[in-house]
What we know:
- It is a single chain.
- This protein is mainly α.
- The chain has helices at residues 5-14, 19-29, 37-44, 49-60, 64-76, 81-96.
- Helices cover 72% and strands 0% of the residues.
- The N and C termini lie far apart (35 Å).
Amino acid sequence: LTYTPESLQLIAKVSEWCVRDAIKYLDQVSVFGEITEEHVSKFLGIASDALIEEMISAIRSENFEQVVVSVTSCAEKGIDLHNLAKQMILYLDSHLL
């Protein structure tokens, strides 16, 4: 399997560091061929760290129009918005503390 380090990191986070779940997700995403952050995001309905960073940056700069565009884009890409909120909270928790 070919993969990117970022995609494996995303799988590890989504699986909450459970090896069995990570292997299951890895197997599922491998259907796309190369394991990339985009494929993981698309298949599992989760946002990449880069997208989360963009959204947090837009919120910090009070660019709410960009926030709405980003959320709409996430919904169109099939990203689960409930999971997106959880991912943002976890991201903030790990980067602020």
